[in-house]
Amino acid sequence: MKIQKICCIGAGYVGGPTMAVIAKQCPDITVTVVDINEARIAAWNDENVDNIPVYEPGLSAVVAEARGRNLFFSTDVDKAIDEAEMIFISVNTPTKTYGEGKGQAADLKWIELCARQIARVAQGDKIVVEKSTLPVRTASTLKDILTHTGNGLNFQILSNPEFLAEGTAVDDLMNPDRVLIGGDQTEEGKNAIEALVNVYARWVPKDRILTTNVWSSELSKLTANAYLAQRVSSINSLSELCEHTEADVNEVARAIGTDSRIGPKFLKASVGFGGSCFQKDILNLVYISRTYGLHEVADYWEQVIIMNDHQKRRFAKKIIRNLYNTVSGKKIAFLGWAFKKDTNDTRESAAIYVADHLLNEQSKIAVYDPKVTEKQIFSDLDYLGSRSPEENRKQLQAEKDPYKVCKGSHAVAVLTEWDEFKSYDWQKIYDSMLKPAHIFDGRNLLDKEALKAIGFQVHAIGSTN
Ligand code: NAD
Ligand code: UGA
């Protein structure tokens, strides 16, 4: 079966870039991305392609090439479902904030709404593709809803999890390590798998397109994120030991990373991992394991989150300890708010939790991030509910100028590894700060020796001075 029309429900960080790249690589396939969020769709359609709602290096150019040709963004969900032979579901699947499984299970209400909408609207057979990250066995829920409420049509459910990382989404999509497609092992299931394989095969070498049964595919996505996050928590746990033993975590990471069985990636000690998925997906894995009564398995993975929370708290406490055990009324300059460089995404960013801890100690905070808006910063803090929105605005300010943010501060804290921080005039920053001037480098980004030569007191992650 040759796919001619694709619909994607959800125009977020995954749906937008993924569909833009499919449209770019397959000019003969019409790709329509739909969303209930009108503002988001309007932004994707903005005449000025630099105003699209997701900042990713190279993404504007991809959208500019395909938009209006075979890539469309719309709020007319029914129409797009009706017309497409293949429907990707790429809606949010956050951690539940209520009821059974609160704080751990994935909230699947948006997924279910999509399934019910597809069942209501569809007039012909459809291939429904899980692009969102989902608990293992969700495909059976989708199948159940579609077959019981659909119009007697044939629905094939595929799992095609997305492995892109933010900040490198376009590169990851253009040149993925692998594409994973899981489906039923029946004749129809295999045909559906082949239809999707043929879409990716336009630009992804066949040996990088892995096909599995649907459950393996669903579980592999949670597993991949759990393994990646586990590496970060492992190196972060050792960063604390390094700080007590004069070992240097960067040297340890290099030493173990050259072992080809371990490999050098994801060994960068930091203030803690953030992002919308690592925590959510591990919590989900923990919840699923507990549901099956597998308590040792659950406890094992939960430790990755416990360690990450500890690392964020430890960073905030280190700032307080070095500022003579009080930050009350003191100005701390934050460089970075996004959860990693080259993205405007702040979901679960370590910066939010470090700020919250310091604000509880009555510090003042000034924030500069090259891509994050003031509105987003306040929305992140207000969401925590630790203090009133007015208090947050009294204690924290966001600025467009990094030098202004650092001026008059007791300490600078680097929360995101933006490249531009490295090329700042650090002498000028030092001159404008209160003394002793501290730098807490939560990313081991800056040149420690050069900063020390200027006169800064430098506190890195995982090494002593
Ligand atoms: P997002 O919140 O940026 O986007 C989801 C979009 O879906 C929103 O715009 C929302 O309005 C829309 N939506 C929700 N319900 C809808 C409905 N019924 N009809 C139409 N639109 C609806 O989320 P995201 O970051 O793109 O993540 C989507 C999924 O992909 C999640 O399951 C996530 O775990 C997974 N994932 C994310 C990343 C990432 O880097 N962000 C990477 C891999 C996988
Ligand atoms: C991650 C995975 O890398 C993707 O494969 C996956 O598709 C995605 O989650 C998802 O499912 O959402 P992402 O969260 O965008 O991608 O970014 P990462 O590069 O994985 O970084 C996650 C966090 O870990 C960031 O806060 C980053 O700063 C931190 N990190 C990463 C470290 O602290 N040290 C490292 O060595 C690597």
Could you describe the 3D structure shown?
It is a single chain. The termini are far apart. The mean pLDDT is 97. The chain is an alpha/beta fold and 465 residues long. It has a six-stranded parallel beta sheet, with helices on both faces. Strands 11-10-9-12-13-14 form a six-stranded parallel beta sheet, sandwiched between helices. A two-stranded parallel ribbon has the order 7-8. Helix 9 crosses helix 11 and helix 12 (295-322) packs across helix 13. The protein folds into two domains: 5-204, NAD(P)-binding Rossmann-like Domain (Rossmann fold); 308-460, Rossmann fold, CATH 3.40.50.720. The protein has helices spanning 15-25, 38-44, 59-66, 77-83, 109-121, 138-149, 169-174, 187-200, 214-245, 249-257, 278-291, 295-322, 350-360, 374-384, 389-395, 402-406, 426-432, 448-454; strands at residues 5-9, 30-34, 71-74, 86-89, 126-130, 155-159, 179-183, 209-213, 331-335, 364-368, 396-398, 411-414, 438-441, 457-460. It is built from 18 helices and 14 strands. It binds nicotinamide-adenine-dinucleotide and uridine-5'-diphosphate-glucuronic acid.
